[in-house]
Specification:
Residues 129-161 are annotated as: Disordered. The protein has helices spanning 31-38, 71-81, 120-126, and strands at 2-4, 21-23, 27-29, 49-53, 59-64, 97-100, 110-111, 115-118, 132-137, 140-144, 150-153. A hairpin with a 2-residue loop joins β9 (132-137) and β10. The protein has 161 residues and is an alpha+beta fold.
């Protein structure tokens, strides 16, 4: 499904415009229908892949309504993050969970903007009420400790040639 950014609900960063969405191979859909689909499938058996486009039609985000990321998205997260995203943890991303920064059951998307590689230990730590984690931009994580200190992690760039 393709949905214009402007057609998204206000809580998702849109303006609830009447811009048409599109289902590939089927044609345009009304903005209201696209918004309902973007909020998540109503059945666990129904899964949508989506691409959000800006006013010029350029892709700005993509993801799926499924809980588990499809293989290509998982590969993207592993390649982007390389290791667990907790400060100074070096467990390889391929051995980590693809964790939702904002929990899926609370409306968090299964997308590169909301997933990060976390080893099981730090995945569980994130769920402790004294800790918090945000992802202000894809791949940038901000951890807040119980002592109200913040630690920001960004991905390690690959070495240049």
């Amino acid at each position: 499904m393709i949905i214009p950014l402007s057609a998204l609900p206000k809580e998702m960063g849109g303006s609830e415009s009447r811009a048409l969405g599109e289902i590939a191979g089927h044609g345009p859909i009304l903005a209201e229908a696209a918004r309902d689909l973007a909020k998540g499938a109503t059945s666990k058996a129904t899964r949508w892949c989506y691409t959000v486009v800006d006013d010029d039609g350029n892709p700005v985000a993509d993801g799926t309504t499924a809980y588990r990321p499809p293989p290509l998205l998982r590969s993207h997260i592993d390649s982007r993050d390389r290791t667990c995203r907790f400060p100074h943890c070096n467990r390889p991303a391929v051995e980590c969970d693809a964790d939702h920064t904002m929990p899926h059951h609370l409306g968090g998307s299964t997308s590169a903007a909301n997933l990060a590689a976390l080893c099981r230990r730090h995945h569980r730590l994130k769920q402790h009420p004294a800790w918090s984690l945000t992802q202000p931009s894809p791949g940038t994580l901000v951890w807040r400790t119980p002592h109200n200190r913040t630690h920001t992690t960004t991905r390690d760039p690959y070495p240049s040639q």
